[in-house]
């Protein structure tokens, strides 16, 4: 890695940490003040909490490692850093899939009542435990110690990357060469060598396990992206079909003709039903005052029933429109997630060349989420307006 790349990485990571911290605090404050807590709100609060932890702890840790050029004196620091990265990032991916599933049941199957507050809590807790387990396994594959057999390979890697030997490792190598001249080298080469460099180390779990785990760990991001794309595609397909059905109903108004069975003169009723099922045109032939009064009573009763039906229908439509807006908002979050993590994912799999600046751009996902919420959610906008108005008073 070139020096200017490291400096650029430190600058934009610092900006990410600052902006993301402020934004996610506002999201947590705004959504916790909402009176009605829907399942989507609980998932958003969880995602904002993860993003806040990432901006307050994980990103500053990454900045510190970049400043130190990943040279740390203690192995526990190296493992703790990789534990943070390997826990918070997959947790965000898992929550993203859970949000997509929640939107599917809320829009496509609103009466199934699959997602409840209790089940959301169970899902979040399960995903958190899974992410912690992944983080623990991942951090065991990193450290500052290397096997003596890999020492020569490690030196070659350092020279090939134009970094050169750091002073600590060079001094340790010279000390090792001195001792080799006076001791049995077989005894000396059995002890792990402290490289003072936080890097991949297969001392605890072995090279084979590390290789398999890296593939499994990386596959979680790919599977998460696939699940999110498939679920939102199903949701939009459902919305499209429903809109097409609504357009067909609007194009062909429903007409009903009623002919009385008694011997009175004809009383023909024509009703054109609009989308909200209210009566638009009603024509009657009135011949008797008594019959007119009875028709008026029946009409008023029918109107009240239809008004109630219309209000209920409008309420359902309003809820469904809000769900559609929420789905669009969360689709933007999913899109940002895919775009942010795809370059780092390809670099981790060594399908493309490593670029440190582009690799660390995946942290933008934790920063941009609050702005998507603010742009798409009117309730959140109102909460922010109240906050700023209170501050200005």
From TrEMBL:
Compartments where found: Cell membrane
Entry-linked Pfam families: 7tm_1
Residue ranges annotated for the G-protein coupled receptors family 1 profile domain, each copy included: 23-373
One GO BP annotation of this record: neuropeptide signaling pathway
Principal localisation: membrane
Taxon lineage: Eukaryota, Metazoa, Spiralia, Lophotrochozoa, Mollusca
Similarity comment: Belongs to the G-protein coupled receptor 1 family.
Transmembrane intervals: 6-29, 41-60, 80-101, 122-145, 220-239, 327-346, 352-375
Biased composition (Basic and acidic residues): 300-310
GO molecular function: G protein-coupled peptide receptor activity
Keywords from the UniProt entry: Cell membrane, G-protein coupled receptor, Membrane, Receptor, Transducer, Transmembrane, Transmembrane helix
Protein name per its UniProtKB record: Cholecystokinin receptor type A
InterPro entries: GPCR_Rhodpsn, GPCR_Rhodpsn_7TM
Region (Disordered): 284-310
GO cellular component terms, A-Z: plasma membrane
Membrane-protein topology: Multi-pass membrane protein
Superkingdom of the source species: Eukaryota
